[in-house]
Each structure stands twice: as C-alpha cells, then as structure tokens.
Write a structure and sequence with these properties.
The complex is a heterodimer. Helix content of chain A is about 0%, strand content about 45%. By secondary structure, chain A is an all-beta fold. In chain A, strands 2, 4, 5, 8, 9 and 10 form a 6-stranded mixed beta sheet that branches. Chain A has a 4-stranded antiparallel beta sheet with strand order 1-3-7-6, with no helix packed on it. Chain A starts with a strand and ends with a strand. In chain B, strand 7 and strand 8 form a beta hairpin. Classes of the chains: A mainly beta, B mainly beta. The interface between A and B is medium-sized, with 26 and 29 residues.
C-alpha cells in the first residue's frame, strides 16, 4: 500500500482480556518496528523485525507482550491479560533497509484498558 | 535512563519568529540524528536528519545543528508558521543499525 496501515485505530478493552493489534507495512519494506507512546512519554521501542532474521525483542516490557511478522509483511502485536498501564498509542513503522533511516509510521492504535 | 532528552515539554512562538527546539543525548555511540513532527491522531513524519560527520543540515525553513562535544542538537524553524504547530521528536541511532531512540517530544505552538 501507499503507507503503513494499522488497525484498529482505537481499541477499548477490559482489564485481563487479550488484544491483537495489526500493522500492514509499506510493500517492499524489509524492516518493521513497533513503538508505543504512553501519556506524557516519548516513543518507547518495543520490537523490531528485519527480513528473516530473529526479531529484536529487547524493548518488550513483559512476557505478556509478543509480536510476529508473517511472510515478511503483516505484523501482529499481541498483549495478553491487559493491564491499565498498557493503555497507550501503539505505533508501527517500516523502512526499506535495516536500522535508523527512513522510518514511515502508521497512524497508530490507541489502546485503552478499562 | 533516558538516552535522548528533550527538556522543554512545550514552546510557544509568534508567527514569523524563529523556533528553536533543543535535544540532548547521553550515548556517545549515537551518530545519526533525526527530527520527526507529529500532528494529533497521526503518526510521526520525518522532518530532517543529520549525520555526526556534519554540524549543520538545512532544508528550507528547517535547520538542524549538531554539537558533538556537548552532545546537543537543535532544530531551528524560521520563519515559524501556524502549520508548524505540532509535537517535535528528536531521535538518534548508532550507525543506522539500531532502532531509533526517541525523546519525549516538545509541543510547539505557533501563534498567529
């Protein structure tokens, strides 16, 4: 597609439920990143996929968080047993090459845990 | 520990004047720096970048200055326009091989 697409744009869930957030990167972009922005905070790195390499999961805050990227394209971020502190905007970005250059971000998914 | 710091959460500037947004970093391995702009309900968009081999990069109304010895960079917008009102994030990486590390952002308001 023309840009990075994320769905849903908004998600309200009850504490303890699992949620899945989807990211459809720009076609041909080999690198895909997940960040989150909590209220009053910067963009916090979560996880990074590059081609067929093992993902860099160093930013995941707990084992309730996981992500996968199927076929080198679409990615799903899963949060199990959601907590109120998980409430944030989850942003996905993709780039043509590995590393810190040329990220294109999606509009994000605003997650609210009640 | 924050590796990229934007110590001013907000800045208000009159239209036509210069806006100066500041950013400090602690990791001396960072060698590539970027500024992103974010409007509400949208993802951040790339604005301008600078490599550590330079101390200045200019693109139209936007100029980024890098002071490696002070581990400080700044974004200058001149003249400022109301459409520049947004949150500006400073970001850094190491040789482009690591995910970007972002600051907390500075909300710029340009008053007409």
């Amino acid at each position: 597609g023309a840009g990075v697409s994320q769905s849903p744009s908004n998600k309200v869930t009850e504490k303890g439920k699992d949620v899945e957030l989807r990211c459809d990167p720009i076609s041909g972009h080999t690198a895909l990143y997940w960040y989150r922005q909590s209220l009053g905070q910067g963009l916090e790195f979560l996880i990074y996929f590059q081609g067929n390499s093992a993902p860099d999961k160093s930013g995941l805050p707990s084992d309730r968080f996981s992500a996968e990227r199927t076929g080198g394209s679409v990615s799903t971020l899963t949060i199990q047993r959601t907590q109120q502190e998980d409430s944030a905007v989850y942003l996905c970005a993709s780039s043509l090459v590995q590393g810190g250059y040329g990220y294109t971000f999606g509009s994000g998914t605003r997650l609210t845990v009640v | 520990d924050q590796q990229v710091k934007q110590n001013s959460p907000s800045l208000s500037v009159q239209e036509g004047r210069i806006s100066i947004l500041n950013c400090d970093y602690t990791n001396s391995m960072f060698d590539y720096f970027l500024w992103y702009k974010k409007y509400p309900a949208e993802g951040p968009t790339f604005l301008i970048s600078i490599s550590s081999i330079k101390d200045k990069n200019e693109d139209g109304r936007f100029t980024v200055f890098l002071n490696k010895s002070a581990k400080h960079l700044s974004l200058h917008i001149v003249p400022s326009q109301p459409g520049d009102s947004a949150v500006y994030f400073c970001a850094a990486s190491t040789s482009g091989n690591t995910p970007l590390v972002f600051g907390k952002g500075t909300r710029l308001s340009v008053i007409a």
